Amino acid sequence: MANLKLRDARKSYGALEVIKGIDLDVDDREFVVFVGPSGCGKSTLLRMIAGLEKITGGDLMIDGKRSNDIDPSQRGLAMVFQSYALYPHMTVADNMGFALRIAGVSTDERDQKVKEAAKILELTHLLDRRPKDLSGGQRQRVAIGRAIVRNPKIFLFDEPLSNLDAALRVNMRLELMRLHDELAATMIYVTHDQIEAMTMADKIVVLNGGRIEQVGSPLALYNTPANIFVAGFIGSPKMNLLPATAETIGPDGISVALGGGSTMTVPVFSEKVKVGSKLTLGIRPEHIRIGQGDQFTGQVVLAERLGGLTIFHVATASGHSLVVQTEGADTTPLHTPISLHIDPGMCHLFDDEGKSLAKLN
Ligand SMILES: Nc1ncnc2c1ncn2[C@@H]1O[C@H](COP(=O)(O)OP(=O)(O)OP(=O)(O)O)[C@@H](O)[C@H]1O
């Protein structure tokens, strides 16, 4: 069993506070991913958990025990870094067994643990090699093996795949998911790659400026972002965000004017919104249909043809730029006049503070 709790966790460097009060629960066997823009504090938070950065306020609880001041080596955690940090002069087997040797584990037990980990990671045939004779992906597997042999309560990963090429990243991503399942392990994983976050996480933690914007399952964040920040951060291509003004408020929702004569009634509710309130309408690119309506007319100005799907950049007659995603290889040529349909039920409305308005049932 392994669980971890942060309560009002803070980190300051001198007068500069970079982690500003984090409350988070990581449950046993959960795969938790920290995402957020560069500099938001993902690595700092992970390093605070690992014990590599001192926590300057609040509590870190590991299995119910306050662990702020426990030595990193005694926390029962193992961290895998982006840089692998392998010892170049040691073989794969020695690299993997090093921490156990330092801990005074007998040679027999060490060999057995290294062999078990090598089998799980398909490194058995490489145990006698040195890191320089391995590919990037193999090196990263050795770094993960070094964590596995320690049988940690919780694995911590700091952007472990970002030095790998695109194809290898996909492979390693799948391997890590398999490993999480096979080891029934608790994992905390930092990345700026939202595909990694969406595909691997049980729970995503979206950080921004040292605070949590939202915590939830990948689909919860995708379908019901709490605010504009999360709406814009999760999802690729990004959600379209358009300025809107509340025109009427009724039992069917809030009617908004989108400029250029376009209006839409979005089935949401808020006591705070009044006629004239400034709002933002959000619609994901895959929820806009081409050639099925007259909410917007315009023309395609750019097309990203990916084979399985096509991403159109559309300039509307009302002066908006919209990104539209269609299934398959849509061959609509550039500059073709088109009309667009938006399903109001798929739209999000955000208030003037960027908070999401509740949907009507
Ligand atoms: N030793 C330090 N002294 C002062 N500020 C620091 C120190 N280490 C990190 N910071 C600041 O803390 C903030 C968070 O940094 P951190 O590395 O955790 O961000 P990150 O989200 O992991 O970013 P990235 O995705 O770019 O790695 C940044 O503004 C950074 O400049």
From TrEMBL:
It comes from the Bacteria. Keywords: ATP-binding, Cell inner membrane, Cell membrane, Membrane, Nucleotide-binding, Sugar transport, Transport. GO terms for cellular component: ATP-binding cassette (ABC) transporter complex, substrate-binding subunit-containing; maltose transport complex. Its main location: membrane. SUPFAM superfamilies: MOP-like, P-loop containing nucleoside triphosphate hydrolases. It is found in: Cell inner membrane. Signal peptide: none annotated. PROSITE patterns: ABC_TRANSPORTER_1 (PS00211), ABC_TRANSPORTER_2 (PS50893). PANTHER family: MALTODEXTRIN IMPORT ATP-BINDING PROTEIN MSMX, MALTOSE_MALTODEXTRIN IMPORT ATP-BINDING PROTEIN MALK. Belongs to the ABC transporter superfamily. NCBIfam families: PRK11650.1. This is Multiple sugar transport system ATP-binding protein. It comes from Rhizobium hainanense.
